Amino acid sequence: MAWFRKDKQPLKAQDRRDLPADVFDKCDGCGEILYREKLSQNLNVCPHCGHHFGIGAQDYIDILLDAGSFREMDAGMRSGDPLEFRDLKPYTDRIAAAEAKGRNEAVRSGVGTLDGIEVALAVMDFGFVGGSMGSVVGEKIARAGRAALERGIPFLIVTASGGARMQEGIYSLMQMAKTSALLARLHEAGLPFVSILTNPTTGGVTASFAMLGDVNLAEPGALIGFAGPRVIEETIRQELPRGFQRAEFLLEHGMVDQVVDRRVLKSTVARFLRHTFAGWRPES
Q: Which residues of 187-215 are buried (b: 16+ CB within 10 A; e: fewer)?
């Protein structure tokens, strides 16, 4: 009766065409077809190969902070158009289109508790104009850093960005200095700054606050760099090494301190803060 038996075979990509689009996702790392609900329960990390899917700012807030502890700051800040930038599509139209998706800016900031430790947190959102750093992004990060100074608490930033926002020109580039100066004040005050680098972290964000952490953590496979590999190859006229600008390559060459699986990110940050932050108190 062998013909009654059917060997279990993994779901192939070609089988997906008859399935609802909102039920399954294909892993970019190994090609497996994954049930979206199960993937979400695994923090959007492929259970087969460990590939980290991109997630939004709210997801990182939920992963890092204790439930119900987040208190958002400056949620009403909106980007202007100081240069009256015009390209194929007016800058104001790009902002309006991004806001229509339910996002206010490319970063969310506030305070909350991480495993009982009060922290200030800023999380960038690549879904808003590629997570680009404009004047509002820089200001919100600086204000969150000042809140950390005033409260005497650690500061965490989760980065995901294509770099400085070209539509704001020099106003965008000024945010590199603003945020870096704030982090220098945190360092002088002896308050820890944890930078969590996700895919991608590039351009002016990498060249400023993203790489200034007391500890720089990166998600597996994250693209981290200033200019893209193609631009670098064309400039230096040399072929780049395999895996160049990926988190593991940067760890090997001393640019990041640890590559951390998203599923243990909260516990890793908590352990670092308990070792370095004199102001934390154990729960009674």
A: eeeebbbbbbbbbbbbbbbbbbbbbbbbb
Handedness of CA 75, 80, 86, 90 (dihedral sign): positive
Residue 86 has pLDDT above 90, yes or no: no
Length of the chain measured in residues: 284
In DSSP terms, 164 is beta-bridged to 133
Residue 133 bridge partners (DSSP): 164
Tell the residue number behind the tokens 């922290």, with chain if given.
119
Measured CA to CA, the distance from residue 256 to residue 158 in angstroms comes to 14
Q: Which fold has domain 55-276?
A: 2-enoyl-CoA Hydratase; Chain A, domain 1 (3.90.226)
Give 95 or 5, the one with higher predicted confidence: 95
**DSSP-based three-state secondary structure for 22:** coil
- Helix 169-188 × helix 135-151 angle, to 10°: 10
Domain ranges of the chain: 13-53, 55-276
- Where would I find the H helices in the chain? 36-41, 57-64, 91-99, 135-151, 169-188, 203-206, 229-236, 247-252, 265-276
DSSP state of 164: B
Q: How far apart are CA 175 and CA 90, in angstroms?
A: 22
Buried b (16+ CB within 10 A) or exposed e, 140-165: bbbbbbebbbeeebbbbbbbbbbbbb
Contact 66, 50 (CB under 8 A): no
Q: Mind listing the pLDDT tens digit for each residue in 207-252?
A: 999 999 999 999 999 999 998 888 898 999 999 898 899 999 999 9
Site of tokens 């803060």? 273
d(CA 239, CA 229): 9
